[in-house]
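### Sample
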Amino acid sequence: MGSWLRNIQGQLSEFASEVLNEATEEVNDPETELQVVRKKLLEAERGLNVERENVEKLKKKIGYLEEEVYAKNLELDTMNEKYTGVIESRDTQIRALQAELERMHHAVQESLDDGDDDDFFPTNNARAARMRDEIDQLRKEAAHWKRLANEQSEKSDAFKISELERNLTEQKAKFENEIAALIIAHNETVAELKSLNQDDKDVNEKTENLGRCIEQHISESDIHREEIHFLTKERNLLLEKADHVDKLTFEAVDKVLSERIHELEQERENLQKQLDATQEEIAGKNSQISLLQTEVGEMHHLIDIQCEKFENEIINEREQSRAKIAELQREVENLQLLAKSHEEGKNSEESKMAETIEELSKQIVIWQNRAEVSESKSKEQARLDRELEQLRRENAELTAAYNDLNEDFENHKAEHGSVVTSNRDLTARIDALKANLIEYEERYEMCKNENAETVQQLEKLSADFERLRLSFETSRTKSASDAVDEVERLRTELDASKDDREKLRADVERFRSAIGIIDTELNRLRESNNRLVQDNKAMGASLDKFAEIRNMLENSDSELKSLREKFFQLQSEHELKEKQWREQLLELSEARDDAKRRLEECQRETAIRQSRSSDIALSAEIVELKSDEAKVTTSSEGTVDSNNGWEKMADWDATAPTNGSSSTNGSNNCTIMNELREALAVVTEKTEECEELRRQKHELNKELDLRQTCIDELMVQMNVLQSQQHIHAETFAQLRSWANELERDKLELERNLVHTKEKLKQVEEQLYEVKGDELVNVKQVDSIQQTIEEHEQKKRNQSAQHEEALRNTNAEHMNIIDEVENKLEAAEDTVNQLRQQSKAAEERFESVEKEENVRFLHINTQLMEAVKRQSELEKANCELQHKLNEVSTQVREAERLRLELIALVEQKHAESVKYHTQLQAVLVEKEQQSTTFATYTEKLSVLEQELKNCVEARDKALRECERLRDHLLTMEETSTMEALAGEERETELRQRIRILEQKTEESADSVTESVNAYQRQIAELTEELDFIKNEKVSIVNRLREREKTLADTKMALSNLQNVLRDIGIDHEAQMLQYENTVAEMRKNMENLNLEIAQFKQVQDTIEAKKQLLEERIVHLKEEITRKNAMIEELEASLDEHAQLAVASVSSYTIDDQVLRQLFMSYFTADKDKQPEIAVLLASVLGYSQEDIAKINAASHSSSRGWFGFGTSSRLSQPNVSLAEQFVRFLEKESLTTSHSLPVQQSEEVETIRSNVPLQCSRTSSATDLHSILNT
């Protein structure tokens, strides 16, 4: 837009300078005046064509931007559809899982209720059913409210989009109306020029005799024209430099604003994350809704009670009013009867009665009004009843909606991310549309200002033209001496302009130095911003890693806590078992001491009995010897059998009854000794078993010590982990401090940016001052340009060469820029590779964590198996203890039997036989006991093997723990190595970026060197200037216009700053709101924590399914990360498309070859018309040297006809001149139909609209112009 304005201003200044030049010259030839007027017309028409072309360009740009907006909207819609599909699939999965969980939960509750509560608590079943119904209703109500919220959000989004579209259409309509007004104004100016042309024709008839005087000044005017052409070139170069400076400043400002906008977008994303957290308030609001429902029920109850009271009061009032009305009517009738009876004699009382009647009638009216009021109250009561019914319906709907909300509450939790993303997309679209609207408004204001400036310039030109016409009329009376005086005056002004030029050079050099300083500061700011971005990325990655490590440590802490609890339980159990074993050992030791005492007593008794038996045996032998000597005859009958001991005892009993007791005592002592020996053997076996039990106890103590050592090692590991966690917390605090330092650096950079903005404002002010000086020089050049036209050919050659050189340098710069872009793309590829590697490392780390978790679970299972084995061993020990108790009982029984046998031995012989049989039974039992002892020994061997296996398993577990430690150490080392490698890569990338920046700076230095060379050439060319005209009045006017534009821009900047401040205030208010909501949510979280403490009892049944859900969540997160990567790629492709589109729009050029060919055919076809517009066409279209030579040749060949045969050609001209036909052609071209902005049309229609009419317009305009020129 700025270049377009400058082109228009240059054309208008050229037109004004030519008019002034022609006015200063004393023109007497009417043909030359006509030629001048035609030149003016052509220049005005050329400016109009340029303006139309610029308007068409702006329309095309608007259409292209609208197409981009539409395409982006389509892409956003497709993305929204994709994400909604993904979210719906996830919702279905979550609902299915929730249904399964609820079914399982209900099944468990039903089983529990059926097993426990059906017989004892029948009221709980009814309460559970009622609670289920309430839960279903609340879920339905929640779904209803959710549906209403979604519909309202969609309606609000559609309403916003419709409002934005309406604003766009209004802005477009305003722009088209203003363009139409400009066209009308231009048509009016063309009509005025036509009237001036007719006046000039009248003047031409009078000024034929002035041609001779003009020929003398042609040579001087040629010299002046050459100098003016030289100055125009210098002027153009200065304007190009100013444009370049403007572009640099605007680019810097745009970058600063874009960075600020990016920061605001990041803040908005953070706020939207906080909004995500605010959606969790629904849980608290559900309770509030339930409370509101209870309050609504109570209010309904109160309203019903009040309605009943109100109805009763209304009925009572109606009955009272009716009774009063009846009484009053009766009184009225009585009074009327009394009035009729006393009418004749009591005229004085009639007035009183009338008054009373009137009062009564008034009271009747009052009561009737009261009755009407009561009826209205009854109607209002009916209306209130209807409203109550409506409220009840609404309450029912609210309850249903609450039920729906409760049903989809967890779905909302899953969907809040999608809602946030959709809200984020909508806000992004709204922001984009707002930005487009702001751009359109700015462009509209710029166009409006430009159009106003053009109108003012046209008015000034018309006033200048009138002034020149008057001066031309006055110049007729002046003589040639006035021209000489004017030339001298111009020379003096030229000297003054030289001084101004030197000042301007000094200002330009000062401005260049300021621009260099600003460039260096901007480069530093860019480097610092890039570093900050990289540091932020690194910090984000480190924070993510720290969060993962923290989660791992928390998990490990929880697991270690559970292990600690289990170990403490095991310790307590072992202590209890040790106590039990000690008690058993004490009991066994006491039993052993008792047995030893008994054995000692038995030994004493046996010794006494043996001594007695030996004495008795000696006495018996003596008795036998005596009997043998007395009875020799009976000696053969001494011994019959080997087994006649019992017969001897019987005979001995018969012969010597006094000695029977001694013999029986001897046999009893033998049996007792045998029993005592057996008891001793049993006691020795028991002692051996006790020693074995002691040995087992010692081994178990050793195992307990080993396990205690394991526990101590685990505690040491726990302490190490806690120390690591403390270290990580310290690192996290360091990272936070680092983040705070980065924020401080950001604030300092923002301050530096503000400082640079202020410097940019100062530079802009300097620019405007320099531009004002340039405008002074430009207007001075325009004043002299009328006298210098022949020097333009040489300067055009030089300008062509200069343009070729510029093109070559631009091509070289473009190649360099392409190389830099390729390098940047390669750097981006490497960055993407690094990101992929980091992702792969994270995946490996996650897999290692999973393996470690699996191994840890395996170790836990082994520990549980060991505990089970230990419990089995304890059971076996208990069985052995039981068997020992049985053996002790058996020993006691044996002792009891021994006592019985002693009693039986003292009895008769028959009882001794029975005792013998009982001894045999005891022997059998002894054999059984020996077999049981053998089985016990076998079991003890088996238990020893199991203990060995347990020891081996423990050793294996310890080895696996050591291996896991080694593996963790290796993983930490590998992670540190990868981090170091990543840092090295980052340093390499930063070095590459610095090298690229150095290359760009070198390219910028080469550009500055070329610019300096061009400036030197300009300085050399400016030394050839000699004469400049003083037009300070016009310069002051232009400066005022520039000041106005500056004021407008300052106002626009202030408006933008106000808008930014308002946005900041809004953000602060939103932040306060979000903080309040966060505080409320924290309160709600505390309440929820209390509820969670209640729900932890149910958590044990859901842990298995929770693991499956967590695995699915991990899978979904991976899908989300992939889709985020796809989104980033799509955004990058969108940015590339946008850049290509902007490049295509910026490189758009208008094809003028057709016009050149047509005008060339015109010049070559009709030689009579060549002198009229040859110079104007050459200056407008910029032909090559060959074309200019042809035009000059044609003009020289037809120059005789200009002066010699001017009158005949003028008389032979038709009524409609070529200039008028050309003006009509331009009017026809200017009357183009305005196209509507396609906000949401299809792309095919837009491409057809943007391509076909342009071709048609070009062909039609070319044919019309060709026909005009041929005529």
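The CA atoms of residues 430 and 922 lie 106 Å apart. This sample (GRIP domain-containing protein) is used throughout the tutorial notebook.
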